[in-house]
Amino acid sequence: MSTAILHLHLGLALLLFAVLLAGRIPRLRAFSAIVALLVLATGLHNFATRMHLPPPGWHMWIGIKTLLGLHVIAIVLLSARGTATAEKLARWRKGALVSGAITIVIGLYFSNFAR
Ligand code: HEM
């Protein structure tokens, strides 16, 4: 069950990153918001289940990953509100892509190579 949710988290996270990269959030507002909330829910589930017997550095790196992940989710939800200007959306998108890329690398490292 936990492995299935970890993989679901991976799929949803990559989908969210792809929508962000393609600049499609303004056109897929409800879809993006739902995917962002599902990434949050599955991420919290992973946090609760994967902290058992953590590899060295897990708490520090997953703490950093969670903060960066929350940054991505906040930007997606704010962009999905549809009230920001085009300049603001472009600036937010760049920051969220950087945070998202780091989040993906840390997540993949800890779920595939650290244990
Ligand atoms: C605040 C929300 C989030 C929390 C609490 C969270 C938490 C976690 C945890 C605990 C893991 C498992 C690490 C381990 O195996 O020890 C994980 C994996 C992962 N996370 Fe997140 N995450 C969040 C948001 C995100 C976001 C926004 C992205 C990317 C845009 C992301 C991408 C990934 C990826 C790619 C993996 C590896 C999954 C796999 O290999 O199957 N996460 N996450």
Summarize the structure.
With 115 residues, this protein is mostly helical. The protein contains 4 helices and no strands. The mean pLDDT is 98.
Write the layout of secondary structure elements.
Layout: H1 2-21, H2 29-50, H3 58-81, H4 86-112
Q: Can you characterise this structure?
A:
With 115 residues, the chain is mainly α. It has a single domain (2-112), classed as Up-down Bundle (Four Helix Bundle (Hemerythrin (Met), subunit A)), CATH 1.20.120. It has helices at 2-21, 29-50, 58-81, 86-112. Helix 2 runs antiparallel to helix 3 (58-81) and helix 3 (58-81) packs antiparallel against helix 4 (86-112). The longest helix has 27 residues, at 86-112. The radius of gyration is 14 Å and the shape is elongated. Protoporphyrin IX containing FE (HEM) is lined by residues 6-7, 9-10, 13, 16-17, 39-40, 43-44, 46-47, 50, 58, 62, 66, 69-70, 72-73, 100, 103-104, 107-108, 110-112. The site of protoporphyrin IX containing FE (HEM) has 29 residues, from helix 1, helix 2, helix 3 and helix 4.
